Amino acid sequence: xxxxxxxxxxxxxxxxxxxxxxxxxxxxxxxxxxxxxxxxxxxxxxxxxxxxxxxxxxxxxxxxxxxxxxxxxxxxxxxxxxxxxxxxxxxxxxxxxxxxxxxxxxxxxxxxxxxxxxxxxxxxxxxxxxxxxxxxxxxxxxxxxxxxxxxxxxxxxxxxxxxxxxxxxxxxxxxxxxxxxxxxxxxxxxxxxxxxxxxxxxxxxxxxxxxxxxxxxxxxxxxxxxxxxxxxxxxxxxxxxxxxxxxxxxxxxxxxxxxxxxxxxxxxxxxxxxxxxxxxxxxxxxxxxxxxxxxxxxxxxxxxxxxxxxxxxxxxxxxxxxxxxxxxxxxxx
Length: 333
What we know:
Blueprint: E1 5-14, E2 18-21, H1 22-26, H2 33-40, E3 44-47, H3 55-70, E4 79-83, H4 94-101, E5 108-112, H5 118-131, E6 138-145, H6 155-158, E7 163-173, E8 178-186, E9 194-195, H7 207-211, E10 218-219, H8 221-242, E11 252-255, H9 260-269, H10 281-284, H11 291-299, E12 308-315, E13 319-326
Parallel strand pairs: 4-5, 4-6, 11-12
Antiparallel strand pairs: 1-7, 2-3, 6-7, 8-13, 9-10, 12-13
Helix pairs in contact: 3-4, 8-9
């Protein structure tokens, strides 16, 4: 009997209509287009402005896009994982709400949070369910409404983040395609440098906290940047070495879109040509859990069956890693 591997067989995506450009940000904080672009590579980001609509709205839209493109019956989906750092509510599952709203009545579901590494870690989890032979259709969604935790008077964070969602379907494969290997790591001693302190169980929201804007995300830029550059690049090198791959074997680098300079440094570390590096940070900014599936959606038409994809991500916590995956289909686009 052939070994079962977990392959991505469909992708979908959604980004909100409202475009927050660098020019608009110039009217909100002390910054300018040249400063933002030179330091991050970001030109614009999408923001979900509708009152009462949260991460689940983005996740549902991305899932519906995938379902329509793939032609799959939602009732055939057995598991839904929503990778997110911005769930709709505390305690109530965003994944469960998403599943109900797309008609996946036979699926169980749960949220997964590893900050910007959420989708990468979700790929590992989804693959294990497929490889076990117990499940045949696992929907993994990366979705975040980062605007809900950003202070738009803080130029250190408001220039970086955007809202969006992407989805992929994992199915069994017996052609040795799909997820091949992974290198995943975490270090909790770094959490003070990138987090949203108030609102969790250690520091519940108080009137005083809100008055002092402590409910918003905070990051110590230089420390996060240095750790992201080193660890994303290091993880990428390690996954190549583990699998005896050279840069010539890599079809695409699918790197978390936190900062163009971080992505460039990761590509440079493995001496990968620019044309093999997926990039859309200029359009969306850092959408946290959504960056990797949004890249797959944007580049889907260029992917070929058998392509070697190297995924890499780094997120608050700290969490980081790399995954080696063989693409399983040719796009019909």
